[in-house]
């Protein structure tokens, strides 16, 4: 069974190695001692293959949000693009700012900018590279950067953001005078909690505290691309704030099941990136194949054919939340602090639901619940330190546009069954064991 094999390999990867390496090279032993710190917390990353990839499980963990990859839609669109350009090159050969700029990449950049209502787009190899370029090139001496330290929308919401911004204005003369800027970095959709950034409210606060207009927003739309906004164009487009946001980063490796990323901004932003960002200036230009894959993904969004999948995500998220919320045992488990779904508390208050549904558990229980669901055929992964803060472990349920009601009902039922088992263990109703059956099987 693929799930059992994956879990067995994962647990083997958590076993300490340094104690058995007394006679090994110092170089290797020192590295293994550092890795053992991860292993001790069950936080060692291992190259496992999820069961859904061999059709032995249901995908609730991948970032193929619209299922463009698993259904073959992106591959078909990509192959169509290749047939239109049969004489393409596999290589780039040089950095773009020297000899490797080419017409095709410029054309696709214009198309991406037009789709998002931006003045320009600059394609980079990844979202990670894009963020590095933005924060290397754009801040000027004397500017202040405000970012969400906990990667959670609530830390920049309401009074917290107002207080931070007021403190900066009070303490920094050039910002107060309007000769330097405050750069505010946020995400449109927060990947660990599924929160949507209150962008409109933050911009309004910025205008109030800094009437000289020297607060600029940089928004990472990685987890919103393809899911949020008209035809999946993102949160900024959904709010009609294209002219109010200085920089946007859209990645293609999630909702578009592709690769690469695009930085949106005006001509000045683009010029700064192509001159000051080391990851742009000194990196080999993106290849034709990468650009063609990006174009294929955007063509699918532009066609409007994926709006049904976007709507289905909304429907399925509500169905899951309503299913666990209606289960009395799950509610008891939530009251006991065993497992809970934060979205149960405020789902009706949200204007828009995204594909990320965190399932919070008591520390270490996240692994037991993940084992239970994996062995039941539902591919979902525990998220623990260092990805999230210590004590903030959870499972991250990723709902996809092609998931079905039956699959949602199944994982909700399995979650509630595990909750019943843990309630019985903690209340003493099941005196036979203090460890969940799935954990016994894996360990």
From TrEMBL:
<dbReference type="Pfam" id="PF00155">
    <property type="entry name" value="Aminotran_1_2"/>
</dbReference>
<comment type="similarity">
    <text>Belongs to the class-II pyridoxal-phosphate-dependent aminotransferase family. BioF subfamily.</text>
</comment>
<keyword id="KW-0663">Pyridoxal phosphate</keyword>
<dbReference type="InterPro" id="IPR015424">
    <property type="entry name" value="PyrdxlP-dep_Trfase"/>
</dbReference>
<dbReference type="GO" id="GO:0009102">
    <property type="term" value="P:biotin biosynthetic process"/>
</dbReference>
<protein>
    <submittedName>
        <fullName>Putative aminotransferase</fullName>
    </submittedName>
</protein>
<dbReference type="InterPro" id="IPR004839">
    <property type="entry name" value="Aminotransferase_I/II_large"/>
</dbReference>
<dbReference type="InterPro" id="IPR015422">
    <property type="entry name" value="PyrdxlP-dep_Trfase_small"/>
</dbReference>
<dbReference type="GO" id="GO:0030170">
    <property type="term" value="F:pyridoxal phosphate binding"/>
</dbReference>
<keyword id="KW-0032">Aminotransferase</keyword>
<feature type="domain" description="Aminotransferase class I/classII large">
    <location>
        <begin position="58"/>
        <end position="413"/>
    </location>
</feature>
<keyword id="KW-0808">Transferase</keyword>
<dbReference type="InterPro" id="IPR015421">
    <property type="entry name" value="PyrdxlP-dep_Trfase_major"/>
</dbReference>
<dbReference type="InterPro" id="IPR050087">
    <property type="entry name" value="AON_synthase_class-II"/>
</dbReference>
<dbReference type="GO" id="GO:0008483">
    <property type="term" value="F:transaminase activity"/>
</dbReference>
